[in-house]
Amino acid sequence: MSYINAETVLPEDIIKLVQQYVDGEYLYIPRKIQNQKQWGEKSGIRVFLKARNEEIFKLYALGTSVAELEKLYYLSEKSIRRIIYKEKSRVD
Question: What is the pTM of this model?
Fold first, then answer.
């Protein structure tokens, strides 16, 4: 996250008002609800995990065992089974 100097974007009267509450400190201003991004949207991890999970399910459907998938993807048996269950219910 980068910082923007308030003097470059805010009118002087608003800066003085904010200084009454937070003088010389960093202040986080959250996004409007309609502009918020979902988890993983910015980094691309959401797309990566979706593709990985689809691949795990595809390999499982082709006969790869859960134990083999654990080793291949460095995930626990519980995680592999959860992914398979979710992908199967999504496909049905």
Answer: 0.62
